[in-house]
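Quick start: read one record
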Amino acid sequence: MKTFLLSFLVLTVVAAPLQAAEHDRPLKGLTGAFFALSVANLEESARWYREKLGLDVVLQVDQGTAVTVLEGEGLTVELIHDPAARPASGQPGSVHGFFKAGFVVKDLGKTLEALQARGVEVAFGPFPAKDGQRANAILRDNAGNLIQIFGN
């Protein structure tokens, strides 16, 4: 319940971005996406999303459970650290719950080039477009979470 209330607070508060120049954003063309992750190390994860995806910190709250919200180019990522939280055991897809997040960009090739220049790991792909499937690639963040990017 505490996490739900913090998430609600996070989504209703507007704050000024803390950093990252607009021209230095690798996710140009993203039209909007959101995901939230429970993380073991809030500082490391927030740094990864700032440095690798070019997002700005727009909100930080710590009331026992700490929340950092980052935004940029239409993407909002909410990172939550609850000291009592424990990781799920098993490989992604082998346990119930969050498996991966994703979003669509206008130019997958240019986006991947910009992300790889920042040291972002492409875990799977890139995969070309085929019948009923957009071109895509799956990234891995600093904590091993999978993020799938689709071409428009």
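Residues 1-18 have pLDDT under 50 and may be disordered.
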